[in-house]
C-alpha cells in the first residue's frame, strides 16, 4: 500500500509535464502550418513527392516552429500571466521552470535546423531559421509591443511554411510558392484581429498596442472586412497563374464569399460571439483552402 503512492505520484507529474511542454509548442497552430508545408511540397512537383525530404521537411519545420512558439511563451511569460486567455499557460503557472523551457526551445531549434540542413537542404534550413527569428524575436520581442501593425508585419514569419515545403523538395525559390505565402500573409490580419476584438480588454490591460486597443473596435472591423476582400483577390492568384484549376476556383470562391459575409456581419450586425465566430471561421477557411489546393492538384 505504502509503495503505490510513490510509484503513482511521479507518473502523474511526468504526464503533466509532458503536456506542458507540448502546450508550449502551440501544437494546433503548428499542425495547420504543417498542412500548408505539405501542400507546398505537393504543388512544387508534378508527380509523387520523394519520401525523405517530405518526412524530414515536415519534422524539421515542426521542430523549429514549435521552438519558435516555446520562445514566444518564454518572452511573453510576464504579460501572459496577466491576461485571462493566457494566465494558465505552463510558464506563468510554474509547471515548467524557465531554464528547462530555454533548454527545450533551444534543443528543438538546433535539432530542427540540423535535420533540415543535413537531410533536406541548406536553403530550407536558413529560411526556416529566418521564420523562427522573425516570429520569436522580431514579432514577439519587438513588434508586438511597438506598433498596431505588429501582426501584419510579423505575419510574414507565420506565412512562410508553404514556401518551406516548396524549397524542401525543389531546393529553389519559385513564384508559385510565394503566392501561397501571400495568401497566408493576407489571411493573418482578419484571423488575428477578430480574436483581438474579443480579447481587447486583455491587451489593453498589459499595454500591448493591438489594433482594437489603439484604433478602436469599429476601425478594426473595417480593416478585417477590407482584408477579407484583399484575401479574396489573393486566393484567385493560383488560378490566374495556371497553378490551380476549376475545383480550386469554385471552392476557394465559396470560402472567400463566406469570409466576406462573416466580416460584413461583424461590421454591421454584430451579436455576442460574432467576433469569435469570424476567428473560428478563419481557421476552417485556411484549412479547407489548402485541402482544395491539394485536391485540385491531383484530380
Ligand atoms: C503573426 C501571425 C499570427 C498571429 C498573431 C496569430 C494569433 C493567434 C492567436 C492569438 C490565437 C489564439 C490562441 C489561443 O487561443 O490561445 C491563434 C490561434 C490559432 N491560430 Fe493563429 N496567429 C497567427 C498566424 C497563424 C498561422 C500562420 C496559422 C496557420 C497556418 C495559425 C493557425 C491558428 C490555429 C489553428 C489556431 C487555433 C489554435 C487552438 O485552438 O489552440 N495562426 N492565433
Ligand atoms: C519556423 C516557423 C514556421 C515559425 C512560425 C512560428 C509560429 C508558431 C507562428 C504562429 C503565429 C502565432 C500563433 C502567433 C500568436 O502569437 P501571439 O504572441 O500574438 O499570441 P499568444 O498571445 O497566443 O501567444
TrEMBL record:
Gene3D superfamilies reported for this sequence: UbiA prenyltransferase
Further remark: Carbon 2 of the heme B porphyrin ring is defined according to the Fischer nomenclature.
Keywords: Cell inner membrane, Cell membrane, Heme biosynthesis, Membrane, Transferase, Transmembrane, Transmembrane helix
Predominant location: membrane
Database matches in Pfam families: UbiA (PF01040)
Main EC class the enzyme belongs to: transferase
Superkingdom of the source species: Bacteria
Enzyme Commission number(s): 2.5.1.141
Compartmental location: Cell membrane
TM segment ranges: 29-49, 55-75, 96-119, 125-143, 150-169, 175-198, 219-240, 276-295
Catalytic activity: heme b + (2E,6E)-farnesyl diphosphate + H2O = Fe(II)-heme o + diphosphate
Primary role: Converts heme B (protoheme IX) to heme O by substitution of the vinyl group on carbon 2 of heme B porphyrin ring with a hydroxyethyl farnesyl side group.
The protein, known as: Protoheme IX farnesyltransferase
Pathway(s) per entry: Porphyrin-containing compound metabolism; heme O biosynthesis; heme O from protoheme: step 1/1
UniProt xrefs under InterPro entries: Protohaem_IX_farnesylTrfase, UbiA_prenyltransferase, UbiA_prenylTrfase_CS, UbiA_sf
PROSITE patterns found in the cross-reference section: UBIA
Topological relation to the membrane, as annotated: Multi-pass membrane protein
Amino acid at each position: 500500500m505504502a509503495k503505490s503512492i510513490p510509484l503513482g505520484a511521479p507518473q502523474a507529474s511526468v504526464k503533466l509535464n509532458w503536456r506542458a511542454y507540448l502546450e508550449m509548442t502551440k501544437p494546433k497552430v503548428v499542425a495547420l502550418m504543417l498542412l500548408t508545408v505539405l501542400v507546398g511540397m505537393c504543388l512544387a512537383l508534378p508527380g509523387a513527392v520523394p519520401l525523405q525530404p517530405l518526412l524530414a521537411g515536415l519534422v524539421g519545420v515542426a521542430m523549429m516552429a514549435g521552438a519558435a512558439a516555446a520562445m514566444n511563451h518564454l518572452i511573453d511569460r510576464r504579460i501572459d500571466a496577466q491576461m485571462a486567455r493566457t494566465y494558465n499557460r505552463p510558464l506563468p503557472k510554474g509547471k515548467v521552470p524557465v531554464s528547462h523551457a530555454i533548454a527545450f526551445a533551444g534543443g528543438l531549434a538546433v535539432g530542427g535546423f540540423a535535420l533540415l540542413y543535413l537531410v533536406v537542404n541548406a536553403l530550407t534550413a536558413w529560411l526556416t531559421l529566418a521564420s523562427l527569428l522573425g516570429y520569436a524575436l522580431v514579432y514577439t520581442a519587438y513588434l508586438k509591443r511597438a506598433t498596431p501593425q505588429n501582426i501584419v508585419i510579423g505575419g510574414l514569419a507565420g506565412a512562410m511554411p508553404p514556401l518551406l515545403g516548396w524549397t524542401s523538395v525543389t531546393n529553389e525559390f519559385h513564384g508559385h510558392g510565394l503566392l501561397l505565402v501571400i495568401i497566408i500573409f493576407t489571411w493573418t490580419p482578419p484571423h488575428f484581429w477578430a480574436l483581438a476584438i474579443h480579447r481587447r480588454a486583455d491587451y489593453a490591460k498589459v499595454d500591448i498596442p493591438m489594433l482594437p486597443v489603439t484604433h478602436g473596435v469599429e476601425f478594426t472591423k473595417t480593416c478585417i472586412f477590407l482584408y477579407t476582400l484583399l484575401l479574396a483577390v489573393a486566393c484567385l492568384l493560383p488560378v490566374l497563374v495556371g497553378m490551380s484549376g476549376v475545383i480550386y476556383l469554385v471552392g476557394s470562391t465559396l470560402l472567400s464569399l463566406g469570409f466576406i459575409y462573416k466580416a460584413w456581419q461583424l461590421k454591421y450586425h454584430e451579436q455576442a460571439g460574432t467576433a469569435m465566430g469570424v476567428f473560428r471561421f478563419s481557421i476552417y477557411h485556411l484549412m479547407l483552402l489548402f485541402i482544395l489546393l491539394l485536391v485540385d492538384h491531383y484530380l
